[in-house]
Write a structure and sequence with these properties.
- With 119 residues, this protein is mostly beta strands.
- The chain has no helices and 11 strands.
- Strands 2, 4, 5, 6, 9, 10 and 11 form a 7-stranded mixed beta sheet that branches.
Length: 119
């Protein structure tokens, strides 16, 4: 059973930084594509960033490019999201998700961690 647990959210002023973590259970973590999504109040969930298991290549939403960095530590079954130059519009609940082979979709989700950016 795959379990994902996020941490690291909180309240930060605009321009500040936060680092989110997502700890995963599972022996084949290094093969999973991991992603971060976010959902703001009254809005649909949106993709933020992903990192592939093989090679570790990354993709980002245009809204966070140059400010956010996704990374992973396969030895610790953990994926990170370093968020710099935070803006009020980054306020949302952030969820990590796992695409576990052989399926090509995000079957597993964490409970989310709240990020609030104040002006």
């Amino acid at each position: 059973q795959v379990q994902l647990v996020e941490s690291g959210g909180g309240l930060v002023q605009a321009g500040g930084s936060l680092r989110l973590s997502c700890a995963a259970s599972g022996v084949t973590f290094s093969r999973w594509t991991m992603a971060w999504f976010r959902q703001a109040p009254g809005k649909e969930r949106e993709f933020v960033a992903k990192i592939r298991g093989s090679g570790g290549s990354t993709d980002y939403a245009d809204s966070v490019k140059g400010r956010f960095t996704i990374s992973r530590d396969n030895a610790k079954n953990t994926v990170f999201l370093q968020m710099n130059s935070l803006k009020r519009e980054d306020t949302a609940v952030y969820h990590c998700a796992a695409d576990v082979p052989p399926t090509a979709k995000y079957d597993y989700w964490g409970q989310g961690t709240q990020v609030t950016v104040s002006s």
